[in-house]
Design goal:
The complex is a heterodimer.
Chain A lengths: L1 H6 L1 H6 L1 E5 L5 E2 L14 E5 L3 E10 L12 E8 L4 E6 L12 E10 L8 E8 L1
Antiparallel strand pairs in A: 1-2, 1-3, 4-5, 4-7, 5-6, 7-8
Chain B lengths: L5 E8 L10 H13 L9 E5 L3 H4 L5 H8 L6 E5 L5 H15 L4 E8 L6 H9 L14 H16 L3 H4 L1 H10 L13 H6 L2 E3 L2 E2 L9 E9 L10 E10 L14 H14 L8 E3 L5 H10 L8 H6 L16 H5 L3 H16 L14 E7 L4 E8 L3
Parallel strand pairs in B: 2-3, 2-4, 9-10
Antiparallel strand pairs in B: 1-7, 1-8, 4-7, 5-6, 8-11, 10-11
Classes of the chains: A mainly beta, B alpha/beta.
């Protein structure tokens, strides 16, 4: 899995998604073909770093490798360009995590330890 | 290779639960033997196995040849079809289309899953493979977490209460009391759901289908197969459809487009109006998924799936009975086998063999089997029992 993280580093560190060169639609996660107009002229584009919570949950039993972080908040966030991202919400008071809350992207350790001993980083969000 | 009618000639299945003493192969063979009975010593033209994660659950892949050989039917064309939790329904759909087209005359479909040999966190990891490794698993989200996100959104958008959301699990458990193969044959109250442990807020343990082992099989034939069968049911239509892969990629997370499209297409092939259905087996892996499925198929208006269940519309004797043997919550959800259990149950209903769970006069039935959170949906319609 370590190579996957390396390959995706731009996605994970800077929220790089896609923009359609023909109709301008933007996507995160990135796409191979525009889901609005069908064009294959797709370029990388950094997504806005801010948005708001569409829905959230507090996960008590996470995937293996994330136990040390549990329980933690997960949210579907609508970024300011209308794209959506699934992310953890961290470094935020419990009462601030709610539907409609404004959030911004931060870089944090994604896993305490990668499978091969590497530490993996990626986007998380916090309330503002 | 003329197109003809396709029928389920027979079914076989194991009880669902903790089969500590049986392997993946043991379970598959047990279910398959029941379904193969009308063939005698003849082999089916193909054996198609529906399974999601035998690689993790049993350290085993290559299930087609494995099962064929175990049945003493090596030489037969055999392979596995995988579409996460929709693996069973998808394997059935492949077989149905092959038999109906006349490309082959008979097919054995076996759905099988071995889950209980795994530790709980390994089950979480296995189920998470239905979702994106790069964007869902990467943030530590389990499959239950995605459904928790969906449940909160659903409840907030439509003003659905905790007790209303509990209505489908309560209905499932009530129906399973008299179902011999069900994993949990015990009635529950809404309080049991709302007091069970929190999994992914607002979803609690009793919102979620359990973990169990099981296998279910059918023999599909056309008129060219020359198979004598005491009871047969015609497959009137079937379709696999897909949605945008993950909920966060969808414009409207509450719109189960795959189910909507698969149901519409299957009913269109059957030439049947939804009002004609006597029962529907709904894929309620989580309470909220059952509600959204009922809405996608048009039985409930948006936001009304759980509320309608609470009002008794989907109960035995109600307008449209669902999950007549307990659904995913109480009959159980051995993922790759679930779609095949639904189909076997529809067969029992339409041939009048459902015992205490019989829907009186059942004439037409539909089954809806989802992979992921409606990332895939396989819907089939049955009728014309003889």
């Amino acid at each position: 899995m370590t190579i996957q993280y390396w390959r995706q580093r731009d996605r994970y560190y800077r929220l790089v998604g896609s923009a359609c060169s023909e109709c301008g639609a933007e996507f995160f996660p990135p796409v191979y073909r525009c889901k609005k107009c069908g064009s294959e002229k797709i370029t990388d584009k950094e997504m806005p770093q801010t948005g708001k919570v569409l829905t959230y949950t507090r996960l008590h039993e996470p995937l293996p490798g994330f136990e040390a972080q549990a329980p933690f908040y997960l949210a579907v966030i609508t970024l300011d360009n209308g794209t959506r991202v699934l992310s953890q919400i961290v470094d935020s008071p419990d009462e601030s995590v709610k539907t409609g809350a404004r959030v911004r992207a931060i870089v944090r350790r994604a896993r305490v330890d990668g499978e091969s001993g590497q530490i993996v980083y990626g986007y998380k969000f916090c309330t503002v | 290779m003329a197109s003809s009618k396709a029928y389920i000639a027979s079914v076989g299945f194991t009880p669902i639960g903790d089969h500590w003493e049986k392997s993946l192969t043991d379970l598959a063979v047990e279910a398959a033997r029941g379904a193969l009975a009308p063939l005698g010593k003849k082999a089916p033209d193909q054996i198609i196995v529906g399974n999601m994660f035998s690689s993790m659950g049993a350290g085993q892949e290559h299930l087609g040849s494995l099962v064929a050989s175990a049945l003493g039917l090596s030489g037969t064309t055999a392979y596995k079809v995988e579409a996460a939790c929709a693996s069973g329904g998808s394997a059935f759909n492949v077989a149905y289309n092959l038999v109906k087209s006349g490309a082959i005359d008979s097919a054995l479909v076996v759905g099988v899953e071995k889950m209980r040999d795994l530790e709980p966190e390994e089950v979480s990891q296995a189920l998470a493979m239905a979702e994106s490794a790069e964007y869902t698993q990467f943030v530590g989200a389990t499959f239950a977490a995605l459904n928790g996100l969906l449940a909160r959104y659903y409840m907030e958008q439509h003003g659905v209460s905790r007790d209303e959301l509990s209505s489908i699990p309560v209905l499932d458990h009530s129906n399973a009391v008299t179902a011999g193969h069900a994993q949990f044959r015990k009635a529950i109250t809404p309080e049991v759901v709302s007091r069970s442990s929190m999994i992914a807020d607002p979803l609690r343990l009793f919102d979620c289908a359990p973990v169990g082992d099981g296998a279910a099989a059918t023999l599909i034939v056309n008129d060219g197969a020359n198979v004598a069968s005491k009871h047969r049911v015609e497959i009137l239509g079937g379709k696999i459809a897909t949605n945008e892969f993950s909920i966060y990629e969808r414009e409207d997370m509450l719109d189960f487009k795959a189910t909507k499209e698969a149901f519409k297409a299957a009913m269109g092939q059957a030439g049947l109006a939804p009002g004609k259905l006597s029962l529907v087996e709904v894929h309620d892996a989580f309470s909220v998924v059952g509600a959204l499925s009922l809405e996608a198929m048009g039985f409930s208006k948006k936001g009304m799936g759980s509320k309608d269940a609470k009002a008794g519309r989907y109960s035995p004797g109600g307008e449209l009975p669902i999950n007549t043997f307990g659904g995913l919550k109480a009959r159980g959800h051995p993922v790759g086998a679930t779609g095949m259990y639904q189909i076997a149950e529809a067969y029992l209903q339409l041939t009048g063999q459902a015992g205490k769970n019989q829907v009186p006069g059942a004439k037409y039935a539909a089954t809806q089997n989802i992979g992921g959170v409606d990332s895939t949906s396989a819907v089939h319609v049955f009728g014309g029992a003889a």
